[in-house]
Each structure stands twice: as structure tokens, then as C-alpha cells.
UniProtKB/TrEMBL annotation:
Keywords: Repeat. It comes from the Eukaryota. SUPFAM superfamilies: Winged helix' DNA-binding domain (SSF46785). InterPro entries: Disease_R_plants, WH_DNA-bd_sf, WHD_ROQ1-like. This is TMV resistance protein N-like. It comes from Trifolium medium. GO terms for biological process: defense response. Residues 14-80 form the Disease resistance protein Roq1-like winged-helix domain. Pfam families: WHD_ROQ1 (PF23282).
Amino acid sequence: MLRISFDDLTDDMKEMFLDIALFCIGMDQEDVTKILEDWGHHVDTGISILVQQNLVTVDPMNKIGMHNMLQEMGRGIIRGKPTAVANVRYAFLRFYLIYH
């Protein structure tokens, strides 16, 4: 069932989901929005769609969350992808968190 919800997303939404699953859990939604925009995602409605699909949550403190099973599914999907993109994004995220 979880994979079906993911498979129904557009390619951009799938990438956004995977970026959130790997890099953004526990972060403030405003920071996540800025980061995802910098990575080329169309965030204006993206996070809302992921929330509506029950793939991502935003708690009362405005922190991004995700069920552990969904996060593990995202990690499993990423294992089959080239690591260069993930490494660049991880380095960018570290830079962003240090200097903002």
C-alpha cells in the first residue's frame, strides 16, 4: 500500500519525497521548503500533496516528519540510485545547516 502511494506520484514528487525521507526529517517546514527549492523542486504545492497522500507529516511545531516505514522505503529506493546526487545534496544540506 505504501509503495502504491509513492508510485502514483509524479517524478518530481517522488524525488521530493526521497529528499525529505533522507535529509529533512525533524527540520522546520520553512527550512525544508528553502532547501527543496534550491534543489530544483516545485515546492509551492509539493509538501501539501505529500501530506494529503499521508507520505509526510507536519507537526504542530511545524516540523517535517514521516512514518518510519515510509522512511525505510525511501532509503531502500535510494539504494538503487547513483550516489553522486545524494552525496552532493548531503554536502549542500550540511553547508546550509551550518551557515543559516
